[in-house]
Please model this.
Amino acid sequence: MSNISSSHHHHHHEHEHEHEQPAKTKSKTKSKGYVEVTLKHSGSLLLWSGSQRFYSKNSTSNVFTSVGEIMLRQHFARAWNQWNWNKNGHGNDNDNVDKFQECSEYITANRLTLSFELVHSILGHHGAIPHRDYMMLISVADRNTNTGSFYSTEQMLQLAQRFRLPHNDAWVFHTPQGVERLFDVYDTMRESGMCGTVVETLNRAVKEEAEAEAEANGEGKGKGKGGGEVGLHVQSMYPHSVFQGEILEGLVIRYVSFPNNANNNTNNNTNNNTNTKDSVLKGMRELCLQSQEILKVVPPGVPSILNGDGNDNGDGDALLSCNLRELHASTVNSTATAAVTSAQKSPFEEKLQSLLKESHQYRSTHTKGGDGGSDGGGGGQRIISRPQFGRVERQQFMTNLCHKLLTAKDADADVDAETKKIASLIQTLARLNINADYNIVKEEIQIQNNNNTNTNTTENAVEVDVPHKYRYICIIHVQHDSCFQKYYNAWKDTPDAMMLYRGFSIELVGDSEEEEARGSANANANGTTHTSSDSNNMLNHSLKMIRLKSNESLAATATATAYSANDHDQKQNRTDEAAEGGEKLMLKMKFLPYMVRTFICRNGLTILTKSGKQAFEQYALSQFQRWDISRESMEQWLPFFEGWADYCMAPPLVSLSDKRTALPPLSQGNYLHHYNEYSIQFKEGRFQSQGGSSDGEQSFRGLVVIVGVRKDDVDPLAKDMAEKLGCARIVDDINAVTDLDVLTSIRRNRGGLLCTAQITDGVKKLRTLSKKFENAIYIILVGCAEAEIESSFVKHGSNGRNEVRKTIGMSNGWKRCKCNIVTDLSAGLISTPVDMAEEDDKGIASVVKMLRESSESFQTDLRPGMFVFFPSIPGSGKSSLCQGLSAEMIGAGSRKLLVREGDKVPGKFYPAIEKEIMDSPSSIFVADKNVPPASWGPVSNICASNNLTAVAVLPSGSQDTSIEITCPEAFQSAKSYIFPFSLLYLAVCMKHVLQRAPNSHNGKLDSATKLACMVVVKFYCLYRGVSNDKLVERVTRSMGKGINHIVRVPFFCEEVQPKLPVDLEESLRHAITLQVLQDVRLSDVSDDSMERAEERLRSCLAKNASYLDKVVVSEDISKESLAIQLSDHIKSMKDNFVERVEENEEADVEMESNSIKIVSLDIQMEDIQSVVDEAICQNEHVKAFMEERETDKSNDSDNIVNGRYIKNTHCTFAHRAQMSQEEIRSKFSHMIGAEATVHAVSFLYDENVAALEISIPSTTSGDHALPVTPPMNKFPHVTVWCGKNIEAWRSNTLPAKVINKEATKVVLKSPIELKGRFGFWE
Model:
């Protein structure tokens, strides 16, 4: 049987809150404890449990663990001055003792797991590229106890200093005044803090605390108890400023209670202190002094790697001399040129593995310690293989295992408490739909036989009969931050529940005799490892055994240890938090320079790529508002973000500040190369709103193509000219340049585009571009005269006459291309400096001057433009308002008036018109198109990117309409929806559509359209949930970034709209109800229903036609009003774009990200399947139905294209389409996290969908029962299966289909009990 056994667990402080008000933490220091402060280093998580047992956040034996192992070995050599260890056989002062091995054996013997922050430059960028790669010990987990514990800071520092492990800087504040000073320091430096200043200020703060305490005690300045002369500061071997740099992520501030006799928790490497405040501070003082002594022995100047050639000389020094940065750089090119699949290792990882393998073989015969104990530490080679299971199968394996553990008949007697906790946690993750990955690996240890002296070569090692031992490890990785709050909400009233960590691992152990026998059989005499097929078979066998032996005793043990800031009594801390009102005992206080880089510039790249510049700028602003950043800092940073967005739209390939430096393609993993380049350019004036190149002259705008016989010949000239012109981007493929590239190059304040080409690239693409952008294209031919072309071929060893003639012929094509300027430069002038005397008309400087002067035509009009649009529905009269509109009527003056009808613009409307707007951004653009809420995003992006003022045209007298929708098969009670237009407005618009002559409308919406009225209703329903106030607010406060306006044109004759005729109102409400039910997909609306509704509407409209004609104003009145209001707004526009002042409010992005999709009762899929199995046993028709769909079980439950079984089985209690977010929270929040017992009563199915009907209890389960709010659906059910292209909501229609004999219902012989837990799906 497979059990769960102890291994390593770690997390990333997901329960901590950034920047929380620390008032309660301060108050605790008065008598109960002290505050520790450490620096937050930016890197990747690495765990070490001794020997070769290294783990990353979500896996093992990968590139992160390989880099970490090499860096740790190099650290030990550096820390103990062991650079000559391999050469001389001993290290300084250590007499043949390998400190790495000694530390490894100590960790293994004491069952410890050490967590490190791995700060490197080669595996992804964080806040800054570190000056030197290093690692930092951040916690020590003790896996000896049943619940697991963490070393206190004092214990961890003692261990670190014993083995010279790289511990963090730490400061201790133990008086109320000192703590107040600490938070004052952070508040002062939060928005500008850099490492050097922060460290200096903290040193001064602890010194002032020590002096103040000494003076208060009358002991003389600086002589207080435990304080010392400089305060309590334990110094790191790796000073942050020296190794990582000045960009500091933040401070970790932690409250620690002074220990007492009742809860003393010491171990064998700590002194038996008297557990008083004085003794604790004395111990910290000793650690401070010891850290200073270590720094004297190992100052920062000691190199991090051995000075060697990086090759293995047979004595194992290749590992210590390996420069990881150089190794990575040497392999990155091969990675880029050769396709590497996810199943393959990169060249860099292969090289790392080779280095480690050689080192392991060398050390196995040159170190003491034998096999390092029963776990294979020391000389044993650790081999990792991964069973080939898919993500879903791994998750199912683990949930099945835990389910069997907790439901076995004798589980209470044979399963220990800690295993139950872990199994319950995994089940809870499944119930709450928490996205977690279960990475199952097989760890195999080759136990080294040290009596054999021939194991120091690879060939001999293969020939020896090497015994193996192995185990299966499951590494669980929680994917998203939001999961932690969701989990804690479910378990907040259960103090004994296991804490949830970002990542943790558990060991899967089979029945010892059976599994070991199988393992021995699979290990052959040649020492080969098990194949992935063997691993799959073993896990499959275990899974079958669990299913077949569900009543068998399942014994297991587990110990939780976590990556934390040394919380050595986590359970007690949780109790303390509850008693104190839940205040946080640990705070991560981050600094703005770091947050700007990682959370905005790096993390915002995805938003920028997918949603555009305006969405990125809104994201940046919302982050600043969420962080409560001062207005001064906002004003400082927002122009920087705007420029960063522009830079990222066309990142350069070569650094303009250092022309010899190539830049990699921009990505989140290497963004810092570009961030640093952009920062330099921004300081020099590029990408700033006032525009201009570094020398203060106007930036060039347009496309420059530099053409030579070979690209290599013109590359140096291209770099020089790009710098002088202030071009934002250099590209090397003329055939890849698009219309959008050229448009971007001519936009103001963006800088031009420079492209290198060789004659044989051809001019076809450039001719296509010149048809639209002739005046924006410039061609510079370098060395393209006939004699120069022939000379170039001779120079490069090629004089084929055919090739020369072909090249000369193609050069003529470049010379004849239609563009603004075509000019020639002699190849001999390429070496001439760009800043040569401008008197030389034949020189490069004259060309630069000519290009600048020519491109000034793009710089004359810097005024902002206007975007006029209609948030309306078909038939509202917008086309009539736009027809005949002229620049004179609206007072546009010298601005262009561009009116574009949506149905006449080819292709996608918004990308097409943006090109036109970019070419004339100061124009008045009128979009003759309905713009519902779904299109407000593109409009907002266009306005933001082109400095346009948004003007929305709405009918005067608009009023909200509330529609109550009743649908017995979808809602238990009526649901109300709000719309921003009246029903009278809807009726008039329908009438206008029907008045159009048949087949006369460009959009094919006229009297000949079959469902013309229902199409208008569909547009009307696109505004569902949007009130008049919300519409106005979105336009004026969230669209673009300018000062926007609302224009209301007369529509009705009277301000107060008359009452609709009853029959017309009823037909309109009925039509809206059908459309909403179809939109929210909670009911199946048939085509016949839609056609009957259309007939009813047309009949009522015809009957009331004269009435509708009387209530609307004439077209001329509306057009005149529109022209006058637009004229007024145009006159008020400034010559320079004016941004609106944002108020402090929650951004739409933030609100949308936190919205609740459904309220659900989540039930284990295995339990649902057991009910389905019972239905199969009870009914032959159900059996036949399910057998036909057996193959669907292997399909992805999220892929609608295939028939599929639902994996996240649940009963929906409410959908966001049925009620507002406020209603959902008010009605259902009290139930979230609570369990409920329901009963399956029947099985319903048709050819498209199958579901279990369940009965809902009135209260939740448990001692503290809560009332259950009834589900909104009248048919409470759990969807089991869906057919091809069928969505799960279709199961709502099953009861009605059963009545109509279109579906089958099988009532179970007796209700079957099921347990579930309530949750929100976000």
Remarks:
- The radius of gyration is 36 Å.
- The CA atoms of residues 168 and 236 lie 5 Å apart.
